[in-house]
Amino acid sequence: MAMFKDRIDKRNVKNDIFSGIIVALVTIPISMGYAQVAGLPVQYGLYGSLLPVLIFGLISTSKMFIAGVDALPAAMVGSSLAGMGVVAYSQEAVNVIPIISLFVAMWLLIFYGFKAGRIVNYISRPVMGGFITGVGITIILMQIPKLFGGESTSGELFQLVAHIAMETDDFNKASAILGFGTAIVIIISKKILPRFPMSVLMMILGALATALLHIEDYGVKLLPQVDTGLPDITIPKLNMLLDKPLDFTLDLIVLAFSIAAVVMAQTLLASNSYALKYNFKINNNREILAYSMSNFAGCIMGSSPINGSVSRTGLADQFGCKSQLASIIAAFSMLLVLLFGTGVFEYLPIPVLTGIVVAALVNILEIKLAKNLWNTNKNEFFVFIMAMFGVLIFGTIYGVVIGVLLSFGMVVIRAVVPPKAFLGMIPGHEDFNSLDRNKNAKPLKNTIIYRFSGNLFFANINAFCQDIEGAIKEDTKQVIVDARGIGNIDVTAAERLVILNKNLNEKGIAFYITEHAGSLNDQLRRFGAISLIENGIVRRTVSLALRDAGVERPYPLEGEDGLNAIFYVEASERLAEFEWAFGKDTERKMRQMAKEIIEKLTSDNFESLVDVERETSWGRIGLFDEDELLDYMELHLEDGKNKGKFTDEEVRALEEKIERRRLVVEDKLKSINNKAYGLLVNHRKTINASMKKDNPEIYANVKETRKKLKEELKNTSKD
Q1: pLDDT by residue (tens digit) across 639-655?
Q2: What is the C-alpha to C-alpha distance for residues 129 and 370, in angstroms, rounded to an integer?
């Protein structure tokens, strides 16, 4: 109770109280109508708007969402019971429906235990919108005969349409004027006077028409009398299931599961929408608990399952509701109605009540969403339509199954076919752009740059490889994958990448995977694709891959007589690529590469360190890594000199080449900006401190030699 008090904004108490009264008045005709939809006498709609609403208001973490007897569960119960042989409004229906509410409460409690609130993230908006629209249309079709004096029925689309045609034989003009007129007036008033409770006014006018004009004499049906007083506490008659076939009980359990799933999905989606709109947070799992406890309360009231009400929440929002105090007031108002106001109900015309229900149902149809999907995404519009017709043609239970399958189908399709594009450059611009979406972008000569924006796994690796292989031309020399959108990979995809690299190399085409997070390299190692790391196939950026492939700036573009006019150095080229690729194994790999280069320099006639880099297993490296590599080369050289592996002449020549290259690296970074050079200085201090700690004597000699060479080479030509 203390938590509930903390959620009340004292500045808004008046609005919350007024909102609660309005919600209660609107709930009277709507809940009575939904009770009939479910197959219960009308008073059970009022009973379900008492204790369940109070319990929900005390437990819910939403500031404004309203619960009660609502369209979706009522329709699912009403349409399913007919197929199970339970006659609407019968004593059997009165006994069975509380059992369904009990099972719904138990399922929701199980969902709460498994923290199933997160599942709402996996049900797409088009699927839920299509499902809600399908259920709404189904209930409207069920209610249409009552608008003109006929009897409602249950079933699917074709059965309902056929029943409407049959019921026209009992068409009553007075009923049609009242029923259709009520629905039309309320629908129009929502657009003109959205804050006005037209449903309440139409209910009052209907009662006055009965009292003053005696419209029952014209064949208009009225509601039966509702006894004054509180409902009896209902103990679900579970023993009646012993006299039923096992299939009957199983059908009830499955129906309850479907209703619980719909309650959870629909209400969490809607309540989260309001939370985002008004910038507050809700606890999804606690909301499930609130609905579970509300349905336990509904069970002992004898009502159909309880759900969140989008229409009543919208009305409360219009009148400034900001806390669950509105739910408490609505429950208290309903208590007063049951104690003192039920006498007026026998004056209510059924067509008027049905018109109020139909108008409320029209409000839940997701017409705006359908229009938006049609204009923006035809695939998601198709999913919306499939979910809607799944409910209309196959029924609510199968509609739930179809909706879930469509949701997961959309996830699978998006994973299997993620966004992808081939990239090029726009002359005069620095970045890489999609060739399809930028008409001025041109491919780099002899180069394919392919961006794949999704996880790579067994279901899409074939398409990945086919896209690349299909783009290769006779003059292609390198293929670069921009993998920034690939967060995960499986063993099948890892194996295929190794094979793809091998096949491309056999054709004389270099293959690179770039821009991805370092964690992907760890996955490649785990799944047996370590050769892609060891051989420098993974590179931190596209520009580093181009650098290793020998494509220097300014990059040549297809269809350009000259070269791209832009010459720049990417900031990402200053990053430490080795640490990104090898993780904890970085130092060992750096020492190994330094040793490999020194051995090549002493055994072969290489004039430039850059030429030697190209011959290593890794290839060209970035500026930061290169500066660190030079340090490791010096250490290896000094250690080799002490052990007699190199002559003084060899050491002197190599030290000079190393220092010349270091000056080039510094000049390149200075040409970017002072900040880039400052980053290099800080990085070098960190590396040198580590080297000094590991080999203090060798490091001292290297430091002295480096100082002398730098002074000698300061004014000489650069490599």
Answers
A1: 777 777 888 788 888 88
A2: 8
